[in-house]
Write a structure and sequence with these properties.
The complex is a heterodimer of chains A (320) and B (119).
Chain A: E1 8-11, E2 22-26, E3 33-38, E4 41-46, E5 62-67, H1 82-94, E6 103-105, H2 115-126, E7 132-134, H3 147-153, E8 163-167, E9 170-174, H4 191-201, E10 210-213, H5 232-237, E11 245-249, E12 256-260, E13 263-267, H6 294-297, E14 299-305, E15 313-318
Helix pairs in contact in A: 1-2
Chain B: H1 2-35, E1 39-45, E2 48-50, E3 53-56, E4 60-66, E5 75-76, E6 91-96, E7 100-105, E8 113-118
Parallel strand pairs in B: 1-4, 3-8
Antiparallel strand pairs in B: 1-2, 4-6, 5-7, 7-8
Classes of the chains: A alpha/beta (320), B alpha/beta (119).
Amino acid sequence: MTNKKDEILHDHNHDGIDRRGFLKCMAWAGTGTLCVIQGGVLKSFALDRTSDPGGAAAKGELSFVQLSDSHMGFNKPANTDVAATFQAAIDKVHGLATPPEFLLHTGDISHLSKPEEFDTVDQMLRNTGKETFFVPGEHDMLNDDGKQFMERYGKGSKGSGWYSFDKKGVHFVGLVNVMNLKAGGLGSLGHEQIEWLEDDVKHLKSSTPIVVFAHIPLWSVYPEWGWGTEDSAQALAYLKKFGSVTVLNGHIHQIMQKVEGNVTFHTAASTAFPQPEPGKAPSPGPMKVPAEQLRSYLGVTDVNYVQGQHALAVVDSKLG
Amino acid sequence: MRIRVCIARLAVPVLAAAMLLFVTAKSSMVVKAQQAPAAMEVKIDNFSFGPAAITVSAGTTVTWINRDDIPHTVVSDDKIFKSKVLDTDEKFSYTFSKPGTYPYFCSVHPKMTGKVVVQ
């Protein structure tokens, strides 16, 4: 807010869900952009230019942090020490002006679904003393169709690990879109999960803020690279009556935002390694950046809910 | 008469020798095939199978090798073959004994698809 030149201001949401108001803000973590959404207004300004990221701009009734794509076990040139960068993300959480209520991990906890990879992340998260909610990424379901993930994190969940919970009047829904993927296809929720979602939200008041989190984006980021979920529109149709829906995803290792009608979509940076912008490389493989720049591509997302306002404030912080 | 008998006596060993030669030649061909069975390699690179479509003869062993920094799998659409997850430089092989078309994909990144045609 200190520098008008770096600020993007869009008022998109005054007339509710029928308006196909469309806002797309691509904020690459590498450029250090802070995004705050409050009352349906998105403000985006360079992180470097604000002295208080996640501070006064994002105070509210409820705040939580999204971590994503820790890929514990990855050791290729793009990042040979993913434990260190995950720890840096956790340190960033400790440094937030408003302590988060809890943490969300939106999948790819491990790189190869090895028990020791999950153990490392679990131990590091336990040290935060924060309650953490998980949804699986495809890297967490390798070789055993998610059996291990369910044993570790699936207690009380339905199907392949979906569930919901409430915090301070906000309804959170964790969805699984990395199971039973079909040849040539995208992420998939499946009929059973979508029916469960319909039932899960049908008794809620339309004024209830909804936060949906899942690994693969629930919007079509770049289908050519599989960055989307084939049946997400069906799921989102059941959320049309709500005034405020925020969708948090990981998977694509970069920050992207889009607002469509009542829904704000947000993807988080990875704590492990960056991936290229859609179509800007031959493949979505890990992007090798100069070592001194790596942490500027990685990050954490801090989400703040202000009671009485329509949307959540989403703040992305880079690690270095 | 004597001459004819002689020819007949000669003809038998000649024929036997020819048969022996034929059998020997055939068995040496079999041995040769066993020493170097038909093989084909498919590279996994940049989130794609290369070549994505191959045509091989029955009995060919196809080996996939992952050259990416990200793990992949090789899974037949019809669940005829299924690799474990392949980390960088890991391989998976399958021998195709029956003719047919075998479409496959990476179950981690299902946009990655390929096909083996066995003749």
